[in-house]
Model the fold of this input.
Amino acid sequence: MATVREIASLAGVSPSTVSRVINGNVPVKESARNKVLLAIQRLDEQGGRTEPRLRGEVGIVMPVSSAMNLAEHPSLYSTVLSFIETVSAHELGNTTILLDEHSQPQNLRTQSVCGYLVLGTSEEQEGRLLEMLTSFGKPFIFINRLMDNKLASCINIDDEQATEQAVNYLLSLGHRRIAFIGGNQNYPNTKLRYSGYVKALRAAGIEPDAALARYGEYNERSGEELGAQLLESGKLPTAACVASDPIAIGMMRYLSVHGVRLPEELSVIGFGDIEASSYVNPPLTTISQNSREMGHAAAETLLHMMGSPAICSQKVLLRTELVIRGSCAAPRTE
Done:
């Protein structure tokens, strides 16, 4: 069978469209589906392939804690699923490699693995992994990360700029006392999102209040705990910029149950645009990142490096979008 890229090129559609047609689990326009099926037929008639077939499997490297809690992170789960679908469409297998504090290079090095995807890691783990994987001489890519090391391939959004956009929207509504509600402080994404929050406030002439910055984990349960902390602080901010939708949803649920009117008493903006964000009450205003496209782009980037050994590394930056729903309003007047 021809590769996804070959089919996409002949059909005049994106590789992600080809993957969706082949896997049959996502709706595709009939016209695009017909183009893909016709391209597959023509390539089969021509003998099928113009590129050498990649063989082996891709290693998906993640910490034990991330693997255990993957279902609590809808954006990351969607990204991984899309990645697996894309490599499977290229007839490659995949294997999960769990990372813990005892992992050494020999634990990661597997003969059948011809490339690696890395996700859910802390900065300390990333430093260790980068040294390990570079020594293997096989391509690898970090997802949800932007890394300065010239040998590190990575794919991410601009966390800092996206959070600036979120805070600027709250500022445009008239908010000045804005909290930052973050996930794990050891994650680079958390630090970048806080940096964007600080930059936006300072650009507006507002010095960030350290008491308005709170951290937990990237899940709804942590959001409930952070909501409790806000209530216990004695004086609510007028708005909260939250580093993930699950945190925001958990926080909103807790505050609503305890009598806080949203968005009249507190405006909330999330990050991720997971499916549930449009169904909560009020519907969550959020930063949209296309998690499925991130997974697909990570797979295609890794596959390209696997098929082109001369390429040392690639860095991909994806766009985000502010999705305005009903969880934000102008601050109440006393």
Summary: Residues 4 and 89 are 7 Å apart (CA to CA). The first helix runs from residue 4 to 11. The domain at 57-156+290-318 is CATH 3.40.50.2300 (Rossmann fold).
